[in-house]
Design brief:
With 297 residues, this protein is mainly alpha-helical. Helix content is 69%, strand content 1%. The protein is globular and about 50 Å long. Bound molecules: geranylgeranyl diphosphate.
């Protein structure tokens, strides 16, 4: 079997051609926010979440085109979260994916509007797709919950922004897990559950995919935190070594790089074992999970 990076690249090349069609370039003052949405959306992301959705759907023989609108919507929400996270009021970053962040390429107000535009458009993309209505409702409900402020990504961002490592002395590990499960985990869990919904999975299969996704979500964030400490800025494409200065609470800041790496490895090993019930159809998902540990960006 070919290297998973090659498989992912082939998928993302195809996906990039398709997602571009959702946001055409139009030179008109009214479309300034649309052009900023397009700039950030086509700015070279790895497309891990759409790929994960495609692979989960494939476990149930759901084809690329059926899963596409849901994958597009998810990538739009992911991109909106990065645009807003980069703003001066949040992480204040100048670089994202190796290029100027949205507010640097445009301006702050346009970046806020571009994020808002991607968030709302995501739901339109699913609701106007050719999926059956009951699936649209289930997929839209779940996407709003997973990206939302009560028990979703926004709640995780709040915990991340307002938790100071120096002020938390007990239950550090629980707080880290809760923050990461929400901030990073929700958008990695969504594609696994959405794939199961598209494929009319059994309750048991859905539960297994949920546990798998929880594990890879935490492992993915641990790798991200390790990259913040020892990654190469040119390869990662953003400013690094910020977590320590910002007193971020994460597995690396409390246990150090090696122990954090061990934790990520054991989560991935557990996740891979869970996929055995899907047989050879899960090979790409298993390889992707291993890649989460070794990725350099
Ligand atoms: C602003 C509502 C709001 C939420 C922000 C996504 C996020 C929450 C913050 C971004 C910073 C961060 C470290 C998030 C954790 C998830 C993560 C590692 C995102 C980057 O995902 P990749 O590596 O990015 O898949 P690409 O660029 O490949 O799409």
């Amino acid at each position: 079997m070919s290297d998973i990076r090659e498989v992912l690249l082939n998928y993302s090349n195809k996906f990039n051609q398709d997602i571009e069609k959702y946001i055409p370039q139009i030179d008109s003052p009214q479309y300034r926010a649309v052009n900023a949405m397009r700039y950030s959306l086509l700015n070279g992301g790895k497309r891990l979440r759409p790929f994960l959705l495609h692979e989960t759907a494939s476990l149930f023989d759901v084809d690329y085109n059926t899963a596409l609108p849901v994958a597009v919507a998810l990538e739009m929400i992911h991109t909106y979260s990065l645009i807003h996270d980069d703003l001066p009021a949040m992480d204040n970053d100048d670089m994202r994916r190796g290029k100027p962040t949205c507010h640097k390429a445009y301006d702050e107000a346009t970046a806020i509007l571009a994020g808002d535009g991607l968030l709302t458009y995501a739901f339109e993309v699913i609701s106007t797709s050719s999926l059956i209505d009951s699936k649209k409702v289930e997929l839209i409900t779940l996407l709003s919950q997973y990206s939302g402020a009560f028990n979703g990504m926004i709640a995780g961002q709040v915990l991340d922004m307002y938790t100071d490592k120096n002020e938390i002395t007990s239950n550090q590990e629980d707080i880290i897990k809760q923050t990461q499960a929400l901030k990073t985990g929700c958008l990695l869990r969504y594609p696994c559950i959405a794939g199961a919904i598209l494929g009319d999975s059994s309750k048991e299969e859905r539960e297994i995919l949920n546990t798998f996704a929880k594990n890879i979500g935490i492992a993915f964030q641990i790798t991200d935190d390790i990259l913040d400490v020892e990654g190469d800025e040119k390869v990662v494409g953003k400013t690094l070594k910020k977590d320590k200065a910002q007193h971020k609470l994460n597995f690396v800041s409390i246990y150090g790089v090696e122990k954090a790496r061990e934790k990520a490895t054991s989560l991935i090993t557990e996740a891979i074992d869970l996929l055995n019930i899907f047989g050879s159809k899960a090979e790409n998902m298993k390889s992707l999970s291993r890649y989460f540990l070794t990725r350099k960006y």
